[in-house]
Design brief:
Blueprint: H1 5-8, H2 10-19, H3 27-34, H4 40-65, H5 72-77, H6 81-93, E1 98-102, H7 108-115, E2 119-124, H8 127-139, E3 146-150, E4 163-166, E5 171-172, E6 175-176, H9 187-194, E7 199-204, E8 218-224, E9 227-235, E10 242-247, E11 251-254, E12 269-273, H10 275-279, H11 283-290, E13 293-294, E14 302-304, E15 313-323, H12 326-336, E16 338-345, H13 352-359, E17 365-374, E18 377-385
Length: about 400
């Protein structure tokens, strides 16, 4: 049901409360019972919305997710609340008081901006999406700060706002879109729109080629609990700067323009940089902080002889280095009594689950195996997380 209006009525809201937390296996029985007193389409819409709310908890938290309204695409494409809150806080620190949020989707970023005290013009051309964003502003008590407008973002005058935020659609009928010029609207249009504002932020895919970053933009890669979520191009801040920001925190690593780290033999410790650090091409900065080097010129693992605390990489103490050989690994794990095996890979075609099936770990102990390359040679490194 694209029309949210029936769900916004007292009857619709009561149904949403009634179906909250319904397990998939119970939906048929619940629907049959509720259809005795309510229209079947409304019951179906409420159950569909309940499923979307359950999916949205991971991004928005339980309290907000069960008050908000969603579309299937909106749940998939909306910004995680922690990331949106970080970006809103940064805009607030930059002195921004009003933002034109272009391609606002269901309003996730607009909500974070409004909660930071920033006035928002939220624009989306899809009627159902715009209606959902408006319903969310109302549901969370933010309607006074969020104006939702159904319009083509390319035709909206943003001159009355301090900042512009653009989140182009990066999915099409065939899935993810990797060419920035195939975004909707294209990245080139978004960059041009950004340059008209005092401050601007463009949300893009974290896999964007670095050569696609304009010279007058600051590029920031953001991860949340180690999971890379997005890249942002900032205008009006620090042109040419590259940053990796880790949430929660935030902790931000600014690139110093260092050359690639040297390749060196395996030390006692292996450091796995955060995904945002890798995407931002700041492994050299982490290696310099750790007085370390690379195991292989093409692999983003850092090795060092000493253990140092850093928020930008996870440390492992390595006990064994073996040429890739499943039989030898199986024998070693059996000898050590390893039953809990974590498999990580970088630069290897072997899938972790495939390896785990072959070695059949058994025993009371735990270990981590890295499938990687050392100086070009397929290698297995065995160790465990190091306590700093």
């Amino acid at each position: 049901m694209n029309d949210l209006a029936p769900l916004l009525t007292p009857e619709g809201r009561a149904l949403l409360d009634a179906v909250r937390g319904t397990a998939p296996a119970d939906e048929l029985a619940v629907a049959t019972r509720l259809r005795r007193d309510h229209p079947a389409p409304l019951v179906s819409a409420a159950l569909a919305q309940a499923r979307l709310r359950q999916r949205a908890v991971a991004k928005f938290g339980t309290e907000d997710a069960h008050r908000m309204f969603f579309t299937p695409d909106g749940v998939e494409q909306s910004t995680r609340a922690s990331v949106a809150a970080y970006r809103a806080a940064r805009l607030k620190e930059l002195g921004v008081t009003s933002v034109a949020d272009l391609c606002c989707g269901i309003g996730g970023d607009a909500i974070a901006l409004a909660r930071a005290g920033i006035r928002v013009l939220a624009v989306d051309r899809d009627p159902a999406t715009a209606a959902t964003a408006r319903a969310n502003a109302d549901a969370l008590g933010l309607a006074d700060l969020i104006e939702v407008r159904e319009a083509d973002v390319t035709e909206v005058d943003t001159s009355g706002h301090d900042a512009v935020f653009v989140d182009p659609a990066r999915r099409g009928g065939r899935g993810r879109i990797f060419d920035p010029e195939a975004y909707s609207p294209p990245l080139s249009w978004a960059v041009a729109a950004a340059r008209t504002a005092r401050v601007a932020a463009l949300k893009i895919a974290p896999g964007v080629p670095h050569e696609a970053v304009p010279a007058d933009a600051e590029a920031e890669w953001i991860s949340d609990h180690g999971d890379v979520k997005e890249a942002v191009l900032w205008f009006g801040t620090a042109p040419g700067t590259v940053r990796a920001t880790l949430l929660p925190g935030p902790r931000t690593l600014r690139g110093a323009g260092l050359p690639d780290p040297p390749v060196r033999p395996l030390g006692r410790y292996l450091y796995e940089p955060d995904g945002a650090v890798i995407r931002a091409h700041l492994v050299a900065d982490v290696a310099a902080e750790l007085d370390g080097g690379l195991l292989d010129a093409t692999i983003a693992y850092v090795t060092a002889d000493t253990l140092r605390a850093t928020p930008y990489a996870t440390a492992y103490e390595i006990t064994d280095q073996l040429p890739f050989n499943v039989k030898k690994l199986k024998a070693l794990l059996r000898e050590r009594g390893v039953g809990v095996l974590t498999v990580k890979k970088r630069g290897s075609a072997v899938e972790p689950e495939e390896l785990r099936r072959k070695v059949k770990p058994q025993g009371p102990h735990a270990a981590t195996v890295f499938l990687t390359r050392v100086a070009g040679a397929p290698t297995m490194l065995i160790g465990a997380p190091a306590a700093v």
